[in-house]
């Protein structure tokens, strides 16, 4: 086969062409991977042809640039007028989302309303700046947005099947002279590309084994043979061979035995047949209700073979309990993209947090110019953003990933007139979604549920009077002094104005219904004097001290009240504290700096990965029901002690990324850490040895055992690092999930970047067994 051609993969990932059958074709061709049904798609064709778009950086910086989707359909090329970087590319995998219209902070600030239908923005993962663009027409903008969304959607479907495509791209790059052959030198270069360091003798043996023609180079079927040797996974052969008893293939009965005995699933013959129908690639095997090794590997890479229980990807918990019975995903200083002293404040920070299902966001409100309130970190050099722009962004993105209520935590430093404008903006922009009175027709005695509050905004802040005034028609009549129970800005400032009493506007006060901020004066005082809707915020050090010295009292407090925890003001770098001890004490709103990649944010992502990523996770019963004697520090006997033994074998990893891609000989030396984070008695970490110079298919086969006392509060975190004997190990990837959400048996573990984004094709292969302790 000569010239260019495309492999059109079916949109349904179960019907992917087995790439090993066509390897010899693509090596001698220009590979273009296009989803079946899109090869004639007008939107995709526009991207492949490319075109000029107006790039917007500021009101004065707007320049035409040419953009084009590369033939591999995974890379976007764009021209640059920089002296040393005239041709630049970015991967489609780097894109978080595409927004149509003036839906970015930059486009809203630097463009006029009449170009709305020609605008769109490419939002990148991590901290990379948005790409704001204007097309020549509304139709062209629509095609760019639709085309990009189709490619992104297709790549997400195929990510678990990208191994072959990824290997091929590396093969093509290794063919330096483009003669469609691989010399020994090119083979060595290729192995470095895929993160394998081999000695010369092994490379020569592998090369000689494939060079059947003795020509000194590999081509056609020889490259296919090399490919087959490369993707061979000994551990899969062993597992498959153990159960494939029918003509070296798995019968439906064999597969059922595997599901029952190894995966410990409650499976039926119908379940086994369904897996064969979905994932078997060989039609003749499928007709006999058999599963080949390729089909078996395909199944293991799907959600059924994932470590995370697919049933927990949807909302499966009871959502009708009072809102204080849930852990609530919460952000601190949500407006900041960076540090607390001179970082950038942006509506984008709110959008990113909300799109991660954060359900409690913070707004630090100050007087702004021209009578408009602003949001920033007071008494610092952080930039400012208009309060009304933040409310608009929250309105637009609050319920795109979760339909459950969003709490707006106000830290109010405004004068009366601007407070009134704050209230006006929230009422006019949020409309009927803003909760302005209790759901009940009479004075409530407990919180409503997340189910009751779907699609609603709840204001947390100071209030001039008790909530029963809503029903008794009493009013404070005038604005009154109201001192905040917390003032995070005061922690980083010596200004006396931070601690003075402050007037509170009735219009703003009246919007506070279920989350009235009050000072904490002790658990007994709260029990005797505070209404259920009166809540306190705690600086991390105070909260951790209470959790460690009065854990049971804190848990009882949180059975009827809400508690919000926030980082110390000394964390000017936007670092985070460990949220686990506060969850152990039943605290619901444990606010973290979402903008800072850290172990703490890994744990937060793991905690809220379950229950449909809704931002709400039901607390264990022993943290909800009165009379409990549970204390995470002492662990007295009780129903919370459901002791488990967690066995895990770390078997292998696949396609770990190179950390330093600028160094062609930079090969990782991977090791795996398995961590348990929960009550102090359960917190533990164990690690494998490091494997030298192999990021492609390292194998460990190392077994660990963890004894778990309180499984309902335990999180499991996998950490893959590049070992360095002279300095701190570098992070390769991580993944965290609740212990109660994992599946037993042979499972693949996806790996995420430090920002929480999936690393395509990379993963761990493990065997897990969570059993009742003897």
UniProtKB/TrEMBL annotation:
Where is the C2 domain positioned along the sequence? 627-753
* Bias-annotated ranges (Acidic residues): 478-490
Q: Provide the cofactor note recorded for this chain's UniProt entry.
A: Binds 3 Ca(2+) ions per subunit. Two of the Ca(2+) ions are bound to the C2 domain.
Residues covered by the PH domain: 46-153
Organism encoding this protein: Oncorhynchus tshawytscha (Chinook salmon)
Write out the GO cellular component annotations.
Answer: cytoplasm; plasma membrane
In its keyword annotation, does this UniProt entry include Glycoprotein? Answer: yes
Q: What is its main location?
A: cytoplasm
User: What does UniProt list as this organism's lineage?
Assistant: Eukaryota, Metazoa, Chordata, Craniata, Vertebrata
Extract one GO molecular function annotation from the record.
calcium ion binding
List the subcellular locations.
Answer: Cytoplasm; Membrane
Which residues carry attached sugars according to the database record?
A: 213
Q: What is this protein called?
A: Phosphoinositide phospholipase C
Q: Spell out the reaction equation it catalyses.
A: a 1,2-diacyl-sn-glycero-3-phospho-(1D-myo-inositol-4,5-bisphosphate) + H2O = 1D-myo-inositol 1,4,5-trisphosphate + a 1,2-diacyl-sn-glycerol + H(+)
* Topological relation to the membrane, as annotated: Peripheral membrane protein
Q: Which residues form the EF-hand domain?
A: 162-197
One GO biological process term:
lipid catabolic process
User: Region entry Disordered: which residue ranges?
Assistant: 475-501
Pfam families on file: C2, EF-hand_like, PH, PI-PLC-X, PI-PLC-Y
The UniProt keywords, alphabetically, are: Calcium, Cytoplasm, Glycoprotein, Hydrolase, Lipid degradation, Lipid metabolism, Membrane, Metal-binding, Repeat, Transducer
Residues of the PI-PLC Y-box domain: 508-624
User: What are the required cofactors?
Assistant: Ca(2+)
UniProt EC number: 3.1.4.11
Residues bound to substrate are 460, 462, 537, 564
Signal peptide interval: none
Active site per the UniProt annotation: 332, 377
Annotated residues for binding of Ca(2+) 3:
333, 362, 364, 411
Q: Provide the residue positions that the database annotates as binding Ca(2+) 5.
A: 722-724
